[in-house]
């Protein structure tokens, strides 16, 4: 049993998998945050364009 425990402590494959998982999670969080910010900016831009077009349309009537 002590050999199994010693071998487990020496093994680094589990630690590497956890590190890759944490890196993937951080990248995912960054992508979600960036997409959310981009979405908010696009929404504001389309709202502004819509308002300008409505104003221009009202001026031509």
TrEMBL record:
This is Flp family type IVb pilin. Pfam families: Flp_Fap (PF04964). The chain crosses the membrane at residues 20-39. InterPro entries: Flp_Fap. Keywords: Membrane, Transmembrane, Transmembrane helix. It comes from Rhizobium straminoryzae.
């Amino acid at each position: 049993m002590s050999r199994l425990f010693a071998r487990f402590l020496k093994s680094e494959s589990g630690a590497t998998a956890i590190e890759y998982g944490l890196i993937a999670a951080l990248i995912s969080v960054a992508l979600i945050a960036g997409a959310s910010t981009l979405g908010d900016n696009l929404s504001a831009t389309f709202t502004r364009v819509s308002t300008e077009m409505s104003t221009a349309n009202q001026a031509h009537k």
